[in-house]
Amino acid sequence: MDADAPLPAEEAFQFEAIAASPVELLLRFTPAPGYYLYRDRTTFALPDAQGVQPVTPIWPPSVPHHDEHFGEVAVYFDQIEVPLSLRRSVGDAATVTLEATFQGCQTDGICYPPMTRQ
Questions:
Q1: Global confidence as pTM
Q2: How far apart (Å, rounded) are the C-alpha atoms in residues 85 and 93?
Q3: Which of 91, 109, 114, 118 is 20 to 30 A from residue 20's alpha carbon, by CA?
Q4: How far apart are CA 12 and CA 111, in angstroms?
Q5: Distance CA 7, CA 13 (A)
């Protein structure tokens, strides 16, 4: 395999969602070395949750980057952790599935289409 060939998306961008409490998730993104993740091309949803909605994520400081497709953008080259509060209208315990959609690129290489992970 060519050392400069792009990694499969699952290897280039790892994603974890950790239940920090009944009202907060901790989202961890880990781009591989030589890859970056766009902050503003990331969304979160709880499509099947009854009475639970995601609130605005709390992003850590990003790196400004000039992208040939999107212009000036905010990106992350290293692992980040993003707290995501949950608004609950029901107090009962519930199992939810988070859907995270995000996009990133290989530095000086390809940009991946938006990918969704659960």
A1: 0.90
A2: 16
A3: 114
A4: 11
A5: 9
CA 113 to chain centre: 13
Identify the residue whose tokens are 């969304």.
43
Which ranges constitute the DSSP H helices of the chain?
9-12
Our CA dihedral for 15, 19, 20, 24, rounded to 10 degrees, sits at 90
Can you give the pLDDT of all 118 residues of the chain as single tens digits?
A: 566 789 999 999 999 999 999 889 999 999 999 999 999 999 999 988 888 889 989 999 999 999 887 889 999 999 999 999 999 887 777 788 899 999 999 988 899 999 999 9
In sign, the C-alpha dihedral spanning 61, 64, 68, 71 is positive
Say if CB 76 and CB 39 are below 8 A apart.
Answer: yes
Instruction: Produce one character per residue of 90-110: b if its CB has 16 or more CB atoms within 10 Å, e if not.
Output: eeeeeebebbbebbbbbeeee
